[in-house]
C-alpha cells in the first residue's frame, strides 16, 4: 500500500507514504526489541523476586537490579561464573525489611548466600534448601521465625558454613545436620528459641566444627560423646536448663561424676594440641562467659588494687624492725587474699586483650593433657579488638596448692623465655580455684599430627626439607631453654605433640614450665605415680583395651624412669632424639609390632647394626628423595647419639643444634 504512495505523482500523497513507512518501521522495530528486553535469564528473574519481596531499601542498594539486563552479573552484591549463573549473593547489613522468597531456591549454582544483619522476617522458605550448591549460608541477625525441617536442610550436602544465629527460630535442633558431609567450619545456631535436648548425633561433627548453641531454650544433659567433649563451655552457655560438662552445672543424676576426663591425658595426643594456654570462661566453679561474672572480677580487681595501695601506704608510716615485720606479714597475707579472689596479668606489653575480652569470647577445646585443658579462644568485637585468636590453658590442680607469690614467680620465669621457636606466653590469670595461661595460638597442629594424621590434619606428607626445618628449629628452641639461664632450665616433656607448626611449618616448642606448674606441693608423689604406671597397659575409651606403653614413657630417658629420679637437661636431649627418630621414620615411638616389639630407639639402633637398607627404616614418603640420603643418614646419627643409654655420652642441646644446622637445607 505504501508503495502506491511512493510512486504517486501528488506530493501530498508521497508525504503520506513516508509517514506511513516510518510508522510501520517503528512498530516493526518494537516487535524486534520487546522480546530482547525480556531475555533476563532465570537467575535474574529469581533475584528480581527477592527485590520485590524487600519493602525497605534505605541505601538504594538494589537500584542497579534492572529487568532490562540480560544477566544479573553486574548487579550490586552478585557474583557469577563464566556461564553467567549466580554463585554468590552478598548483601549483609543493608537495612532491608522484607522476607525471603522461595524463588531463591532456584539458584542452582549459588554457593554463598549472605543476608545477615538485616530485618528479614517470616519463615526460612523450605524451597531455599533446594539450592544444593550452597557452601556457605549466613542468615544471622535477622528476625526469621518458625522451625527448620530436618528433611529439608539435609539436602545441602556441600554446606560447610551455617550461621542462623540471632533470629527467632524455634522447635528442636535439626538432627540431620550431621548428615552434611562437608560441614567443617562454623555451625552457629545461637541466640534463637530452639528447645529440647542437644542431639547425641552432634557428637559426630568433626572437631574442626565451631559449634555454637548459646542462648536458646535447650534442656537436659549435654551428651558426653564424640566432638561434644571438645567443645568449650561458651558453646552451651545461656541455656539455663542444660547441665553437664563442660558447663559448671551438674545434672542431678550425675552429682559427683567428673565427665571432664574422658581419656587418660596422653592417650590421645590432639593434633591441634596447643601449648601454654589462654583465657577461658570454663572454670568448674566460677568463671563463665557471662557479664555478671566479668563485672564481679573487674570490681574485685579494682578493690584489691586499692587495698594493696592503702596497705603499702600504711606500712611506710610504721617504724622499727617489729613494724616492718608486721607490715611484710600483712602484705603477704593481703597478696594471698588477692590471689584467692583472682588476678589477671599481661606479660607482653603488645598484648591487647583484656580479661573481659577473653571471658566473652568463643572457646573450643583443642587438647587435653595431664597439665589441663587447652582452648582455642576467638576474641572479637570487644575493646576494639577483632578476630584475635589465642590459646588458653586451664591448669589442672595436680592435687596440690600454689601460693600466689610462688605461682607468679614461676609464670614470670616462663614469660621471660622469648625465642622464635618457643610458644610465647602473653598473660595469665591466678585465683585459688582457677589458673589460666594465655599464649599464642599456633594454627597448623603439631608435628605428631603432621606425621601420623588426625581428625583436623589436612597436611600432605612432609618433605625432607620440611622435616629438616622442623627438627632444626625445634633444636634451637630447646637449646635456648637450656642455655638462657644459670638455673639450667629443663623442659621435662619433649615429644612430637609438643612441637607445634604454623602455616609455614615453622616449629614452636610448647609446654615449657608446665611440669613445675602442675606439680605443686605433690610434685614428687605425682612424678613417682606416673613412673610406676609407665609399664601399665592403658585402656583407650571407645576403642577397647590396647597393649601400649604410656605415650609419655616412650620419650622418657631410662634414668628418668627410675623412681625418685630428677629430670635433667640430658633427659630432654634423649626425648628430643626420640622425636627426631619419629620424624625420620614416620613411625610411632611406642613399643609394638611396628617396631619389632621394641621402642623406636631400639628398633633403629638394631637396624643400623644389622646394616638393613635405609628404605626399611625411613618414612616411605621420603624414599623418592634420593638426593637427601646423606643428609638423612647424618640426622639419624645425631638422633642416635641423643638417645644413648648413658646420659654422660649424650651431647648437649647446643651441640645437637649446631650439628643439625651443619646438615644444611637440600637443593
UniProtKB/TrEMBL annotation:
Keywords: Leucine-rich repeat, Membrane, Phosphoprotein, Repeat, Signal, Transmembrane, Transmembrane helix. InterPro entries: Kinase-like_dom_sf, Leu-rich_rpt, LRR_dom_sf, LRR_N_plant-typ, PRK1-6/SRF4-like, Prot_kinase_dom, Ser-Thr/Tyr_kinase_cat_dom. Residues 360-667 form the Protein kinase domain. PROSITE patterns: PROTEIN_KINASE_DOM. One of its GO terms (molecular function) is ATP binding. Residues 265-281 have a biased composition (Polar residues). GO terms for cellular component: membrane. The chain crosses the membrane at residues 16-36, 289-311. This is Protein kinase domain-containing protein. The lineage of its organism: Eukaryota, Viridiplantae, Streptophyta, Embryophyta, Tracheophyta.
Amino acid at each position: 500500500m505504501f508503495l502506491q504512495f511512493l510512486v504517486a505523482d501528488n506530493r501530498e500523497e508521497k508525504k503520506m507514504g513516508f509517514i506511513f513507512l516510518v510508522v510501520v518501521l517503528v512498530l516493526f522495530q518494537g516487535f524486534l526489541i520487546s522480546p530482547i528486553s525480556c531475555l533476563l535469564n532465570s537467575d535474574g528473574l529469581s533475584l528480581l523476586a527477592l527485590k520485590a519481596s524487600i519493602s525497605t531499601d534505605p541505601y538504594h542498594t538494589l537500584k542497579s537490579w534492572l529487568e532490562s539486563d540480560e544477566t544479573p552479573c553486574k548487579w550490586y552484591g552478585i557474583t557469577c561464573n563464566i556461564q553467567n549463573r549466580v554463585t554468590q549473593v552478598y548483601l549483609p547489613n543493608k537495612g532491608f525489611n522484607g522476607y525471603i522468597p522461595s524463588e531463591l531456591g532456584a539458584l542452582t549454582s549459588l554457593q554463598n548466600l549472605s543476608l545477615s544483619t538485616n530485618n528479614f522476617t517470616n519463615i526460612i522458605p523450605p524451597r531455599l534448601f533446594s539450592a544444593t550448591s550452597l557452601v556457605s549460608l549466613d542468615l544471622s541477625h535477622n528476625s526469621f521465625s518458625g522451625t527448620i525441617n530436618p528433611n529439608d536442610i539435609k539436602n545441602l550436602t556441600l554446606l560447610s558454613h551455617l550461621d542462623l544465629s540471632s533470629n527467632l527460630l524455634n522447635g528442636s535442633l535439626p538432627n540431620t545436620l550431621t548428615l552434611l558431609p562437608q560441614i567443617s567450619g562454623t555451625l552457629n545456631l545461637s541466640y534463637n528459641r530452639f528447645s529440647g535436648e542437644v542431639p547425641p548425633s552432634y557428637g559426630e561433627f568433626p572437631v574442626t566444627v565451631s559449634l555454637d548453641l548459646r542462648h536458646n531454650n535447650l534442656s537436659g544433659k549435654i551428651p558426653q560423646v564424640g566432638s561434644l567433649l571438645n567443645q568449650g563451655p561458651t558453646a552451651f552457655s545461656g541455656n539455663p536448663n542444660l547441665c553437664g560438662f563442660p558447663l559448671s552445672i551438674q545434672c542431678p543424676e550425675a552429682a559427683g561424676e567428673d565427665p571432664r576426663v574422658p581419656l587418660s591425658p596422653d592417650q590421645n595426643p590432639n593434633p591441634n594440641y596447643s601449648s601454654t594456654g589462654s583465657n577461658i570462661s570454663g572454670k568448674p566453679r566460677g568463671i563463665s562467659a557471662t557479664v555478671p561474672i566479668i563485672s564481679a572480677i573487674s570490681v574485685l580487681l579494682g578493690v584489691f588494687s586499692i587495698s594493696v595501695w592503702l596497705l603499702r601506704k600504711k606500712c611506710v608510716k610504721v617504724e622499727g624492725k617489729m613494724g616492718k615485720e608486721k607490715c611484710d606479714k600483712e602484705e603477704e597475707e593481703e597478696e594471698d587474699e588477692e590471689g584467692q579472689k583472682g588476678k589477671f596479668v599481661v606479660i607482653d606489653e603488645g598484648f591487647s586483650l583484656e580479661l573481659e575480652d577473653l571471658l566473652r569470647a568463643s572457646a573450643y577445646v583443642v587438647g587435653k593433657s595431664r597439665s589441663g585443658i587447652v582452648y582455642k579462644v576467638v576474641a572479637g568485637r570487644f575493646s576494639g579488638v577483632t578476630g584475635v585468636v589465642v590459646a588458653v590453658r586451664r591448669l589442672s590442680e595436680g592435687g596440690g596448692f600454689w601460693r600466689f607469690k610462688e605461682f607468679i614467680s614461676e609464670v614470670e620465669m616462663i614469660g621471660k623465655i622469648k625465642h622464635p621457636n618457643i610458644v610465647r606466653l602473653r598473660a595469665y590469670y591466678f585465683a585459688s580455684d582457677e589458673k589460666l595461661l594465655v599464649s599464642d595460638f599456633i594454627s597448623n597442629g603439631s608435628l605428631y599430627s603432621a606425621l601420623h594424621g588426625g581428625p583436623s590434619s589436612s597436611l600432605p606428607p612432609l618433605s625432607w626439607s620440611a622435616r629438616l626445618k622442623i627438627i632444626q628449629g625445634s633444636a634451637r628452641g630447646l637449646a635456648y631453654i637450656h642455655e638462657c639461664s644459670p638455673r639450667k632450665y629443663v623442659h621435662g616433656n619433649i615429644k612430637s605433640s609438643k612441637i607445634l607448626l604454623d602455616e609455614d611449618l615453622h616449629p614452636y616448642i610448647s609446654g615449657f614450665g608446665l611440669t613445675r606448674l602442675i606439680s605443686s606441693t605433690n610434685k614428687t608423689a605425682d612424678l613417682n605415680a606416673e613412673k610406676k604406671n609407665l609399664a601399665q597397659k592403658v585402656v583407650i575409651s571407645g576403642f577397647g583395651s590396647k597393649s601400649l606403653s604410656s605415650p609419655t614413657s616412650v620419650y622418657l630417658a631410662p634414668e628418668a624412669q627410675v623412681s625418685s629420679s630428677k629430670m635433667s637437661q640430658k633427659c630432654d636431649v634423649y626425648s628430643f632424639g626420640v622425636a627426631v627418630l619419629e620424624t625420620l621414620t614416620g613411625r610411632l615411638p611406642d613399643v609394638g609390632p611396628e617396631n619389632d616389639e621394641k621402642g623406636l630407639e631400639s628398633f633403629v639402633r638394631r637396624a643400623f647394626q644389622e646394616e638393613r637398607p635405609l628404605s626399611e627404616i625411613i618414612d616411605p614418603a621420603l624414599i623418592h628423595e634420593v638426593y637427601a640420603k646423606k643428609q638423612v643418614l647424618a640426622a639419624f646419627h645425631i638422633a642416635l647419639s641423643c638417645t644413648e643409654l648413658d646420659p654422660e655420652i649424650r651431647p648437649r642441646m647446643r651441640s645437637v643444634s649446631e650439628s643439625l644446622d651443619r646438615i644444611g637445607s637440600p637443593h
